[in-house]
């Protein structure tokens, strides 16, 4: 695990100064070592967090003949099996690292090597003999990879911060991306807030040559739903137990101590339970809570830790972190507004005091149907509500006709606009009222990532919703949050529920095994029933967000921070948004809950203040 960066120049050699500038921006990701490599028109940089092969896994790494060089961020959990297969094909190894396995796999199979990797990864390989390069990102987008294309070069890095300094001229801001941030609370790949910088999407590779020719990105894998019938509930439970044990065992491979996040929810409890069974010695578990009882799941986390038999370490998030918020905002590199970034940041800090690796329960909702949005999506729509929405100008005739078909003729073809209405964080009406008149049209522009995902998604309703989350929300929001928070603290997070074998099982489940009645994640919950009571297993999904509604009330520290940022007449927000509308939202909060829009505006205001050198178009 680490941070990677590089520059591939097509007109002149890169310099050590510019490459060091990029790796220095990633120093927090790799406190255990640094490597810089320059050859011809290629510069590769690496910051190391040593987890596997502590003594011989340094990077950049090179093949024995010097033809291939690699920088890699991630972990390959089947690297031992792949190494054995490659040895039988005549490949010789000089280290025990998974990095060399990727290098040898590429030498043996070329671009097809990515289809054989089980794990999380982002890497770049340069083939000096053929004068070509190859970059790839893992199946699910667990590890990030950003690209910046400029005149005569392409640069890459693990964080936007490295790409910002790839050249002296700052990138240009993209105003449409700000609209997508207000819509989704993050900016979906491949777009970023900058015109010249993009995200390589999950399950994608990119290749080109050292003369400046770059091929189109290629998707090498897609999640595919194929429900199996005729399998009993007991057999599904047996399959789940086997695949979870296999995944957790694989994710425990490390030469340093490994802990686990325990939120008190189903997913992390299941991971911790398997980890406790597979580990000798006491497992260290880490949990976060809030002072507000209605928001804190610490009692459930403590119950989970006690039942599965792990040693728990806890921390309470209070309404006193506002001075630290700008640091969080800065490290995401672009506007990012999932408010659970705050407890995630605190959780990563707590865990790093004890371990260098922690397993998490991320991915259970997307894989096994756990979100409340899925319940809303499958519910029969109320035709009158859609008619009122149409008359208010908030919906379309197509939405209303879709609701009629669902109501009177059963299930119909999924409608992407309706799914987006369910999952977006601010309504189109709210966003149009916020934007100044000359920018209001941005609120009506469709996001190409969502449209592309919707076109490729299966037609079954639940499959459709889960597929869109796998393609957009999971990599763009959930996994981005975890990567930034953990890597800032030099901690590696691993996700056993986001594993090729676990996902293969999840996509074989009939809808009734994912959801029963209005309860999602039925199979995961059923697996815990023998050890936990009904209140623990079937309580409503809580989430991990802060009590922002309460923290923004008059007299609270959060309200003072909000007013300091949003009521500043010199704020850049006033260039794009109606200041009167912002003031109205603040004044209304208390009688009405305006915390969702206010939180996003607060994050955006802080980010804009930190990036005054960026010119937007």
What this model shows, in words?
- The chain is built from 27 helices and 17 strands.
- With 617 residues, it is of the alpha+beta class.
- The protein has 4 domains: 2-219, Aminohydrolase, N-terminal nucleophile (Ntn) domain (Glutamine Phosphoribosylpyrophosphate, subunit 1, domain 1), CATH 3.60.20; 233-370 and 468-538, 3-Layer(aba) Sandwich (Rossmann fold); 372-465, no CATH class; 548-610, no CATH class.
- The strands form 3 sheets. Strands 2-3-1-9-8-10 form a 6-stranded antiparallel sheet.
- α10 crosses α18.
- The protein is globular and about 70 Å long.
Descriptive tags:
4 domains; globular; 6-stranded antiparallel sheet; 42% helix; 15% strand; single chain; Rossmann fold
What's the arrangement of secondary structure elements?
Layout: E1 2-9, H1 16-24, E2 33-39, E3 42-48, E4 61-62, E5 68-76, H2 79-88, H3 98-109, E6 119-127, E7 132-137, E8 146-150, E9 153-157, H4 160-164, H5 175-184, E10 197-199, E11 204-209, E12 218-219, H6 233-251, E13 258-261, H7 266-278, E14 284-290, H8 298-308, E15 311-317, H9 325-332, H10 341-352, E16 357-359, H11 364-368, H12 372-378, H13 383-391, H14 397-409, H15 416-423, H16 428-434, H17 448-456, H18 461-488, E17 492-494, H19 500-506, H20 511-514, H21 522-528, H22 534-538, H23 548-551, H24 557-566, H25 573-576, H26 579-588, H27 595-610
Parallel strand pairs: 13-14, 13-16, 14-15, 16-17
Antiparallel strand pairs: 1-3, 1-9, 2-3, 4-5, 5-6, 6-7, 7-11, 8-9, 8-10, 11-12
């Amino acid at each position: 695990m680490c941070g990677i960066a590089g520059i591939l120049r097509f007109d002149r050699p890169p310099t050590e100064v510019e490459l060091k500038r990029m790796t220095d921006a990633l120093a927090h990701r790799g406190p255990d070592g640094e490597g810089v490599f320059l050859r011809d028109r290629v510069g590769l940089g690496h910051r190391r967090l040593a987890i596997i092969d502590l003594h011989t896994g340094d990077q950049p790494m090179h093949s024995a003949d010097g033809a291939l060089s690699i920088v890699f961020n991630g972990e390959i959990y089947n690297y031992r099996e792949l190494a054995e297969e490659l040895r039988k094909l005549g490949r010789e190894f000089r280290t025990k690292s998974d990095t060399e396995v990727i290098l040898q796999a590429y030498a043996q199979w070329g671009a097809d090597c990515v289809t054989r990797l089980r794990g999380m990864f982002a890497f770049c390989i340069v083939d000096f003999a053929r004068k070509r390069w190859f970059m790839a990102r893992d199946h699910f987008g667990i590890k990030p990879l950003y690209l910046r294309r400029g005149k005569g070069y392409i640069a890459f890095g693990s964080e936007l911060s490295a790409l910002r300094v790839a050249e002296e001229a700052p990138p240009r801001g993209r105003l449409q991306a700000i609209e997508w941030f207000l819509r989704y609370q993050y900016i979906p790949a491949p777009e970023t807030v900058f015109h010249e910088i993009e995200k390589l999407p999950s399950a994608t590779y990119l290749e080109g040559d050292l003369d400046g020719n770059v091929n189109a990105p290629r998707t090498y894998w897609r999640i595919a739903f194929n429900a199996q019938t005729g399998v009993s509930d007991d057999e599904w439970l047996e399959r789940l137990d086997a695949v979870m044990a296999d995944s957790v065992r694989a994710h425990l491979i490390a030469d340093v101590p490994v802990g686990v996040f325990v939120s008190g929810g189903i997913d992390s409890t299941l991971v911790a339970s398997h980890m406790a069974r597979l580990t000798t010695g006491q497992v260290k578990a880490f949990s976060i809570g809030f002072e507000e009882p209605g928001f804190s799941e610490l009692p459930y986390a403590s119950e989970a830790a006690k039942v599965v038999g792990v040693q728990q370490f806890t921390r309470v998030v209070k309404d006193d972190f506002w001075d630290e918020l700008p640091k969080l905002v800065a490290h995401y590199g672009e506007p990012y507004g999932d408010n659970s970034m705050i407890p995630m940041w605190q959780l990563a800090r707590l865990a790093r005091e004890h371990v260098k690796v922690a397993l998490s329960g991320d991915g259970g909702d997307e894989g096994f149907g756990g979100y409340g949005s899925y319940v809303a999506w499958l519910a029969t729509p109320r035709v009158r509500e859609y008619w009122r929405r149409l008359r208010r100008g908030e919906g379309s005739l197509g939405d209303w006709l879709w609701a009629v078909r669902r109501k009177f003729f059963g299930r119909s073809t999924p409608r992407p606009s309706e799914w987006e209405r369910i999952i977006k964080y601010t309504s189109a009406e709210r966003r149009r009222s916020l934007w100044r008149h000359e920018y209001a049209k941005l609120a009506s522009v469709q996001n190409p990532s969502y449209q592309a995902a919707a076109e490729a998604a299966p037609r079954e309703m639940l499959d459709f919703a889960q597929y869109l989350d796998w393609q957009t929300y999971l990599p763009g929001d959930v996994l981005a949050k975890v990567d930034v928070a953990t890597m800032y603290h030099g901690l590696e997070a691993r996700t056993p529920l986001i594993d090729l074998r676990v996902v293969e099982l999840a996509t074989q489940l009939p809808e009734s095994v994912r959801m029963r009645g209005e309860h999602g994640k039925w199979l995961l919950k059923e697996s815990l029933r023998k050890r936990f009571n009904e209140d623990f297993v079937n309580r409503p999904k809580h989430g991990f967000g802060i009590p922002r509604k309460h923290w923004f009330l008059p007299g609270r520290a959060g309200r003072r921070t909000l007013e300091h940022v949003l009521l500043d007449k010199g704020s850049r927000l006033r260039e794009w948004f109606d200041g009167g509308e912002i003031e109205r939202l603040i004044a209304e909060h208390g009688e009405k809950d305006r915390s969702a829009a206010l939180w996003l505006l607060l994050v955006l205001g802080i980010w804009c203040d930190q990036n005054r050198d960026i010119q937007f178009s």
